[in-house]
Design brief:
The chain is built from two helices and two strands. It has 86 residues and is mainly alpha-helical. The chain has a domain of 57 residues. It has a two-stranded antiparallel ribbon with strand order 1-2. The longest helix is centred in the last third of the chain and has 30 residues.
């Protein structure tokens, strides 16, 4: 009988007055525009006879690279932002 009384006292001592509320965290998948998921194709290599044609080709390559680099940077920035809603 004494054991039963002691167990009741021990169990009663472990109860919490108020229940703990657990906040659910909802993960949100960011929407990446399809325009950022594509890159322009490489320009066609010209049959260059002048240095100005080579320079135009190199400039076109640089522009295509810059666009792709900017798109990748925008996607990276979008994915690094913590998106937590409650």
């Amino acid at each position: 009988m004494i054991r039963l009384i002691l167990m009741c006292c021990l169990v009663a001592g472990c109860t919490v007055g108020k229940p703990v509320t657990i906040t659910k965290i909802k993960l949100v998948q960011p929407a990446i525009p399809t325009a950022l998921l594509t890159c322009p194709g490489s320009p066609i290599v010209p049959a260059a006879t002048r240095q100005s044609q080579v320079a135009e080709y190199v400039a076109a390559l640089w522009r295509a690279h810059a666009i792709c680099y900017d798109h990748l940077a925008a996607v990276k920035q979008t994915l690094q932002v913590p998106l937590i809603t409650r």
